[in-house]
Amino acid sequence: MARIVILGAGVAGHTAASFAKTWLGREHDVVVVSPNSHYNWIPSNIWVGVGKMAPEKVITELRPIYDRAEVDFRQAKATALHPEGDATEGRPYVDVEYTEPARAGVRERIPYDFLINATGPKLNFGATEGLGPEKYTHSVCTYRHAKATADALSESIERMRRGERQRFLIGTGHGMCTCQGAAFEYLFNLEHVLRQEGVRDQAQLHWLSNEYEMGDFGIGGIHIRHGGYISHSKMFTESLMSERGIFWHMRAHTKAVEPGVAYYETLDGTEHEQRFDFAMLIPPFSGVGLKAYDHKGEDITNRVFNPGGFMLVDGDYSARPYEEWSARDWPKTYQSPLYPNIYAAGIAFAPPHPMSKPMKSPNGTPIYPTPPRTGMPSAMIAKAVTASIVDSIKHGTTEPTHTASMAEMGAACVASAGCGPLCGTAAAMAIYPIVPDFERYPRYGRDIDLSFAEIGLAAHWIKYVLHVMFLYKARMKLGWRFIPE
Amino acid sequence: MTPNQKPYEQAYFPSVPTSTVLHWRKNVLWQAWRFVRINLKMMRVVRASHH
User: Fold this and answer.
1) N or C: which end of chain A has fewer CB within 10 A?
2) Could you read off the pLDDT of A331-375 as tens digits, one per residue?
3) Does residue B32 belong to any structural domain of this protein?
4) Mean pLDDT of A382-408
């Protein structure tokens, strides 16, 4: 009997656990370690954050799902990996600390034959002084954050009804953020709600972003055919901002936030400030801070993880200038080069480099988006990694048998711009491949025939269908396997 | 006037949709057709990714 331990129960971890148990059956153990008791369909947090959806609608409890699937669920956070075991434990193991109220603080070691690190990100609010729900800005990164944000928004709307003007600041809270898409969705949903509430004329909306140009989204933007032209997503996003009378501030590194004011530096080295009454700024991500030790107990964290805390896998991490980057640098199997029984999936793996061009201000401040790897790619990577492990367990294969390079997969994404069955809109977008490959597609790095973007009510319906479908899939109900990642 | 749209303000320069475009973006029949079409296009991307 083999044991797979999966760290994390988000999109990547939960996908890995679902497939691992289905493919391996009762003969083998699948253990999931997650500090959270619920699965959160994060894309719908946007609607929670503007008060259009209750938090309970975007989550589902993990334990009943795993009990039914016979997955061993430990509500705990992983703290350290021991991939070589130690003097007392011959097998590799992971240290965990329970977070479930009944056993809070209890520590345990869980031996494994295979480990999938799908811990997702640490929301690194601490990287910017004054950032985050415990300080002076809001967030929609978790359903609890989103609920608190909705409550604060409700207060702002009440003030506007009383005749007060309100200034909203939405965007990225650091020069090296990813997930601009989430902030972008929040901005447009906010604007939509303000119009519905009849207070739009009392509000001034500002977009603050670390992107070089609007519509970059950490992937260098997308080029699509439209109206006889091939246009960059900059054109569409600026059009959306202009249509709604939103101000924008680009190439910005948020340095600090104080009550009612954000201080930022732009790529030209100049310093600025933006006052606000309500701010929702996305934090940068880092790894969750897992440590790693060899059999002697020596710290090998810097050999297993990169300085940001993300796990090193089979990518080409050699430092080279932007001009020499290649789509082939990106990992394919997500196997640790040091320990073949360890894999990473989703945000937990270390990307070899960004997709957006790295930039620095004259002061040496890096200001560019880091690469996104959430949603569809996260799930596809998790499924491929699990399939390789299952082949190894069932058929004794010694090399990973499945690949899921982000340079060979596409992504479909729906960005909400307002919620409502007849008045909602969203932008439906697709790109192929995710990582631009300028050797295969010299002009734009992507297949223009497969890339598209379209805004309208239909895309909102699709966003809602995805919400229902992926929560159904997460609950592992009848036919869940036939819903694609 | 919507803010940020006066001459030479930031939002004066980008393309904006006409009232016709805005109408079709929310026309239920047209959008029902787009729903089918966008799903088919997305499935092409999903299929291209599962190789």
Assistant:
1) N
2) 999 999 999 999 999 999 999 999 999 999 999 999 999 999 888
3) yes
4) 97
Q: Which CATH number does the domain housing residue A345 bear? A: 3.50.50.100
Q: Which domain holds residue A330?
A: 3-123+286-363+371-395
Closest partner residue to B48 (CB to CB) among A244, A410, A456 is: A410
CA dihedral A349, A354, A355, A359 (to 10 degrees): 170
Under 8 Å between Cβ of A21 and A71: yes
In whole angstroms, what is the distance from residue A23 CA to residue A105 CA? 33
Give domain status of residue A473, yes or no: no
In-domain check, residue B3: no
What percent of chain A is predicted at pLDDT more than 90?
A: 97
In a domain, B10, yes or no: no
As for how many domains chain B has, the answer is 1
Calculate how close chain B gets to A300, using CA atoms only, in Å.
35
DSSP for residue A15? H
Residue by residue, what is the 3-state secondary structure of B16-47? CCCHHHHHHHHCHHHHHHHHHHHHHHHHHHHH
* pTM for the full predicted model: 0.96
Asked whether the beta carbons of residue A456 and residue B34 sit closer than 8 angstroms, the reply is: yes
Contact state of B10 with A245 under an 8 Å Cβ cutoff: no
Q: Is B2 a domain residue?
A: no
Which among A448, A463, A455 is positioned nearest to A241, based on CA atoms?
A455
For chain A, the domain total comes to: 1
Which among A202, A205, A242, A247 is the top mutation candidate for probing chain B, defined by the most B β-carbons within 10 Å of its own β-carbon?
Answer: A242
A258 domain-assigned: no
- Give the mean model confidence (pLDDT) for residues A124-129: 98
The range of the structural domain enclosing residue B26 comes to 15-49
Close Cβ partners of A290 (under 8 Å, ≥ 6 residues apart): A7, A78, A79, A80, A81, A117, A119, A301, A305, A309
Closest CA to A287 of A299, A301, A277: A301
Would you call A408 and B49 a contact, using CB atoms and an 8 Å cutoff?
A: yes
* Distance (Å) of CA A449 to CA A111, A223, A225, A262, B51: 48, 10, 8, 41, 18
Tell me the CB-side half-sphere exposure of residue A157, using CA atoms within 13 A: 19
CB contact under 8 A, B11 and A425: no
**Chains A–B, number of C-beta pairs less than 8 Å apart:** 101
Check A242 against B46: CB less than 8 A apart. Answer: no
Q: Which residue reads 């589902």 in tokens?
A: A60
Closest CA to A119 of A8, A16, A12: A8
Identity of the residue numbered A261: V
Q: Is residue A412 part of a domain?
A: no
CA A377/CA A123 separation, integer angstroms: 20
